[in-house]
Structure of Nurim:
Amino acid sequence: MASVSAHNLALCALALMNFVFVFGTGAEFVRFVSFRVIYHNITGGPPLCRDSVSWAEALRDGAVLRAAGVDLGLLALFAAQHSLLAWAPIKLACQSVMGVLNRAFYCSATALALQVLMRFWQPVTSAPCLWSVSSAPWDTWFPLLCFTVHFLCWAIICSILLIFDYPELLGIKQVYYECLGLGDPLSLKSPRAQRLYAHLRHPVCVELGVVLWLLPTMPLDRLLLAGGLSAYLALGHSLDKQDCDYLSVQLHSKLHLFTLPQEGSTEPNNHKKD
């Protein structure tokens, strides 16, 4: 019994460390995606690009090409890691080795790939911007608008993740169920839910797309980031009509919950009268 308890304790500790690492990486990713460009436009700072040079001149600059090459390589590394670990043979091999920690391992590996991308990302400051809002009064108001929309999008993303069974998504629920002897939590979901999860494990594509593209200034490196991640999100998910029908049913059931207290608010009074 002591060895079993120690085993369960070790599983819980690893799952908790994974949660802290992934959550911290997510918070840093918010800063990386939303903070730098918007903060620069609101407060002023080092230029993110150089509009005094032409694109033809910039694309012959070795520093620009090296920085863009590094950024493309980092995007390819992230996409390769994220896709290979989700590939069925690799997934089965990891499952046989990691067991109940397989999902936590996948999330940690993804967070590690994101950390590498953010740490070694190269800003391209020697090329012109694709666009830059610099005329008054929009040079002040448009960054504030972008900040507001980004804040709302990240709030929606967090809300969706919580509704979408965030503990199961991060691998915490698997460990919890294992310690209680309940089996795999995903196997307890309906076949339609399992089918949806197989096609869509990131239910935040629209909001993330808005965050990636709605900016007051679009330097070349941000274009590579937005274009690369948007293309990966578009290619990596394959929702069909059955999945959309299931999501529609789930949305209506969630909205129906908000009407239940109002419809049943007279029931307690009736019981009191009886």
